[in-house]
User: What shape does this take?
Amino acid sequence: MINIIVQPLGINVPINEGETLHDGLERSGISIETPCGGTGVCGGCRVWAQDPSKIPPTLHSDISTREEAEGLRLACMAVPIDDTTILLEENYVYAHGECSDGQILSGKREDEKERELHPVDLPAVRVATLSEASGTEENSENTAEVFQMYHDRSPKPIDLHLWKASYTPKGVAIDIGTTTMVTSLVNLETGKILASESCLNPQVIHGHDVLSRIQYASTLEGLSEMASLVQNKLNELIDNLCSNSGSSTKEIVDITIGANTTMLQLAASIDPSPLGHLPFDVDIKSSCNYPADRFGLHVNPQAQVYIPPVMHAFVGSDITAGLLLCPEFFDDTKSVLYLDMGTNGEICLNVKGNRLTTSTAAGPAFEGMGLSSGMRAKDGAVQKVILDGSSMIFHVIGHKEPKGICGSGIVDFVAALLGAGFINPSGRLAAINNRNDSTRSQFGLSNSQQGASNNQFGASNSQFGASNSQSGASNRQSGESNSKLGVSNRQYGSSNNQSEALNNQSEAPNNKNYSFELLQFKGDKKPHETIVCNRETPSPVSELDGQPVFYFGKKAHLSQKDIRQIQLAKGAVRTGIDLMLETAGISCRDLDCIYIAGGFGYHLSPVNMEKIGLLPEHAAEKVIFCGNASIDGSLQLLRNGSKRIFIEGALKNMEHLQLADSPRFMEMFVTNLNFPNMDQPS
Ligand code: FES
Assistant: This one.
């Protein structure tokens, strides 16, 4: 056994001989993000060894010789050989402590005020004294007041033993996502949101997807651990909500939960394994209440948890809650599509009163996971890419060099690469020079400009052609870059870019053909900064490990393999949409609107979703984003008891479409793997 002291947590973690740091830390509840799935490709799981001799180097193009000597290692590949201390970067979550990660994982939601969405109607729960309830003034000064909870699902009032006259009935809306958890505390008398808190779902230490979690929970010990992880974290969030709003946990008498079925069952300590195989049985009961104790929640002992209707094993109460944000979905004169984009793509369709739902395994690509430089939406993540004439503009969160790309950025980036001719409809990535004239012209390169553009990309031509003469080529390139950067400097008013760009080139990873120039960090308004790659730069398409890759930063890149992952994800979602529309006998043109939910929903570009074929033609103008609809829908259910009755009735006749049963599924899926051909007029 090897002992590793982990900083900044200050804890000792025993690692088995021959075990990787990643695996050993994970056993102890420390989950380091592994964007490439721990295959040693992305370089995203960095840790620092205090004594580098105790952990042999992990070779990677992103680790310079100096960094290696200073102790930089990749946790997914590093196998310690002796006791030492390591320092974690900001890329981990500790299940038994605070979330370390940035803005989406902890703290108050920024849009809290905007989420005062609907006025309070009549909450499902109210608290009154016996005398108040009976409308009498009989309570004598000598008689202690008896408080009772009136619940719309309970035939009799329930005595509240721990209630004080100074208390106000409060409720908590909860969204348990596979990746993040969000909670909001509400005053049930006024409907006012008092506080909100969110964090990473601590179960991520046992896998990023529901199937890994189901597998881990297949033993009694595993199930108990998974339940405790989420219950403890929810109690921590509830404690924070109360202390931030001056409330007592005993004032919490009502709770609503939006979650997928696996998260629901794990939170209630119910074995989720039937969800992982045919006939996909759901064991948690929905459209009903549970005592809060069932979810291990430390609130008022009489508090109830309401679970909205679950439509199918793969369409949980998070989708039901989310639909409440879409009034047209329940309008029998309208045709409406609802799409929740996450690891699973859940799709619901209302065609004039006929309602249908399905789900499709999209994988984590659109959440920025599983890609070479995929990451969550935090500092250093590209969250938006614009193809502006002959320039490709990258918006990066925070004042940092781009470290990777998050979900919304990926959709934009692929659309820009398609538009610029860097990838073709089959998804093949290549240097623009290798494209035909029609795609070149899309990037603003007319045939008459071809000669000029050949000069502009001449440096990269020589690089692609002659790797052995790299230094000579680089020297020539440096000379050319000087004049090009002169133009850029004038254009963007940056004085130090030239040397910075040359430095960047010399610090390039061991990829011999690396040729991207970081022209500038444009002084955009906080929190975004912008880098620009345009025709003045050599082609950023290069080669890494025998595969074409597109560099959008010194190290961040999108590889051919990443594009294949994106094709699989968008092919799955699009096939689900197409089959739903076909089954209902309508086309996208017939839809009145398309609601898109999901944590990153507000940042997606509908036009680019259509450009990459994620949405059908004519969809973009119909899109309405509703963000994290699960938490907002759960809030509605908390503040309006009548919504519970409404949603249970409205979804009674919802049918489920099993995509895999359709004989057209595979044919459609294969077609939808391709990107739309931008050469063809729509
Ligand atoms: S290199 Fe370790 S997770 Fe990607």
